[in-house]
Automatic annotation (TrEMBL):
This is glutamate formimidoyltransferase. It is found in: Cytoplasm. Residues 181-296 form the Formiminotransferase C-terminal subdomain domain. The keyword Secreted does not apply. GO terms for molecular function: folic acid binding; glutamate formimidoyltransferase activity. Its main location: cytoplasm.
Amino acid sequence: MAKIIECVPNFSEGKNEEVINGLVSVAKSVGGVTLLDHSSDKSHNRSVFTLVGDEDGIQEVAFQLVKYASENIDMTKHTGEHPRMGATDVVPFIPIKDVTLEECIDISKKVAKRINDELDIPIFLYEESASAPTRKNLAKVRKGQFEGMPEKLKEEEWAPDFGERAIHPTAGITAVGARMPLVAFNVNLDTDNIDIANKIARIIRASGGGFKYCKGIGVMLEDRNIAQVSMNMVNFEGTPLYRTFETIRFEAKRYGVNIIGSEIIGLTPAKALIDCAEYYLQVEDFDYGKQVLENHLLN
C-alpha cells in the first residue's frame, strides 16, 4: 500500500458476542484493509476496532461497519459507563504513511456524507474535520448523549453537519472526523467511589485546567466494583502517559486511594510506552531512533 490510513471506530456494544463477532466479520470482509485489533469492555458496553488500509478500502470498511452497527445495535436499549450518542459513536481517520491529515479530513467528509445519504444517520464532524471550533472537542459534541440529543439538535448552533435535526430512532447520531494518533489510557483505583475518579479526572483534563492534551472522565467498572479514570491522550509527546499517571497517583492519595493498575485500549504508538520506560528507569541520554532494536529492523 502506497498510502496507509488508520480508522478507529467505536461501537456502543461490548456485551453481545454475536454482534461483536458480526462487526469483526465485516471488518475482515473488505479488500485492502487489515483489522489490527479489537477490544470490548462490558462495563463501558463499548467496542473499539483498529483498522488500517488504503484510501478506497478504509472508506468502504468504515461505511459497512456503520451500516452493520445501525442494523444490529439499538440505542434505546443501551446502557453503559462510557458516554455515547450512537450505535457507531465515533469514526476517526488517522494518517499513518504517505498520507496527510488534510487527505484524512477529505476522506472523513466523504464517508460522513455517504453514511447520511444511505443510512439516514445524522453526522457531526469533529476534531480536525470540525466545521466550527465548538465542534472540535468530542466531549462537547457528545454532551447530552443519545437521550438528550433530540433536544440538543434543536439548538441553533447544533445542527448536524450532514442530515436533519433529528437522530436516527435506534442508531442515534455519529461523529466522524480526522485526527492524529491518540492513546486510550485508563487508570484503575482501589475504590468503588466514582466521585473520587470524577474529581481526579476534572483535575487532570485540559478542560478543567489540567494537562493540555488530556481528556478524562471517571467511570465505574461494575464487573470489578472499582472506579477508573478513563483518558484519551491526544498528543502523547505533549503530555506523556507517565505524567498523568503520576498526577492521578498523587491526587488519589489525598482520599486514601491507590492505583491498582492501568490499561491501554486498542493500539498505541511504541514511543508512548518507550517514553514511560525511559522516565521510570531514569535512562540517561536515550535515543529512541537509534537504541530501539525494532526501529533498525523496520527501517
